[in-house]
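Troubleshooting entry. Yesterday's outputs looked truncated, so today I'm pasting the complete records for two proteins to confirm everything comes through intact. If either block looks cut off, that's the bug. Protein one:
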Amino acid sequence: MSIVHVVFNPTSGSYSSRKAEQILTQLRAVGLDPQPLLPQTLAESMQAVAELCKQAIPPTIIAVGGDGTVNTVINSMPQGSATLGIIPLGTANVMARELGIRSQQDAIQRIARGTVRPFSVGEASSTAGVRRFVLMAGIGADAAAVADVRSSEKRLLGKGAYVLAGLRRCLDWDNRLITVSCGGQTRRCNSLIVANASHYAGPYRLVPQAGLFNPQLMVAPLPFSGPLGMLRFTAALFLRGSYAAPDAFASGGDTISITGDKPVQLDGDSFGAAPLTIRLIPDFNNLIV
């Protein structure tokens, strides 16, 4: 049997011991030997994954949870040290949407097949530290909303908690601009997405030009400067399901520099504030597809 190391997040609201045992049973049923990891803190999770990646033969590590769990795992593994798989069990599961995973059973069947592709990640550096992201970095309005999400509302409303936080930020709007520069191009805007994936907030395609397997990040200034513009943009995105991002441009191999004083989020978790720089790490590790 092939060994797979299964990382759960017991502190997540979507976790339960019953769900964990069900997933382990399903993995055994397809001929795998799952070894569960149940870290109680973020530090424990990162240490456990880092230790696994020291093995002579790169391990297969399965992140069970939402996008935050996936982000913890990619920030714990050095480049070229492991194969990553995911089983969605969270609020938004944008990563699962990006891969076209329809259900937990679909994810398990993909893990059993073991088809892999090398994927890229972004890496942000600021006074908050250095941290990777696999989906997107948001600077400005969406990061302000992420920072304003209350845990009690998230437990009660799920994704609706982000909408509520966004409405609160509209009442306390930040008019300051940021400047993004990359490869000779410069833009001034209120808010910005640096995308490594096309999906955002679940089923919505915010930057269709982006992709996990592309050798570049997409820089997408958002087309609003005030709260009414943001509300109109968000409503249009929800109704249409996608946005063309006409002002987006590719980073190529160049470092992205963002100046100004605006909050930052990486894969849906707050990461201090700008200024910051972002670079691409191509062929970071293998991803089960």
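Protein two, checking that the full record survives here as well:
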Amino acid sequence: MRIRHLRYFLVVAEELSFSRAAARVHIEPSPLSRAIKELESGLGVSLFQRTKAGMHLTWAGEVFQDEARRILSLVEDAQSRVRAAEKGYRGRLRIALTDSLAQPYLTKLLARCREEEPLTEVKIVEMTVSEMARALVHDQIDAGFTVHTELRAGLVKEVVWTDRPIIAIPRNHPLLSLEKIPLQEVARHTLILCHPELCSGGYDVIHRWFYEAALPFPTSAEYVSGHEPMVMLVAAGYGIGIGLASQITLYSHPDVIVRPVTDDVPSTATFITLLDQPRPEALSRFIDRARQIGELAIG
């Protein structure tokens, strides 16, 4: 089984077309088809069902798709560790960022890690919350940051810092007459919200606010993958945005004005999530530094 064939298989599985897949991997369809047949022959199974209407993965193909991703991830991880060792690193932490988090707290944390433990490489990987949970289970990452409040079995979370939510409002909007914005007023306007899949943690937090306030969740909304496109749409007049103060203020725009929410809306916690098992000392030190930065922000 060749690594190249695994990559070919995953592209074909995504495209469900040899011609489109061949264009992506920069080879002709015929050798690509032969490579997939060699892979099927080596495994002793059919990975694709080919019909006049097209092609689709067999059940064996669906199972192998997950395994191929895991194998390639392990290979890439091994390559990364070897390169890091060549550069002189003696340790490594693999940290996921979800929910499009780009808080100044993270910048301070990573800078402090480089200063205090220069021989430990901290590798940052962006992914969704569901991808983070799978990556933790398959030992592809050591921990991940999220604002999502729920967990799957076998994982634990710890609060590292909190942040106040704010409302991003376009110029000349009637809400600007208020110093602090209550959720009842927010619910009356078209919202620009975190995407329920790409940014599920942020969506979960906002949904919980409305639920706990006994307010109907807004049905009139635009969905975005993060705070930067949110600010862009607010500036264009598409609606008002809800986000974290430390995030939205990174993407200031002359046509967007921010207002705090009323005090009854709770602060949003950022969690570090990891497996419920003994943790390496380097990871414990990383979490301790994150907490210390959160405490300094409160102070």
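Both blocks look complete. Sanity check on protein two: The two ends are 56 Å apart (CA to CA).
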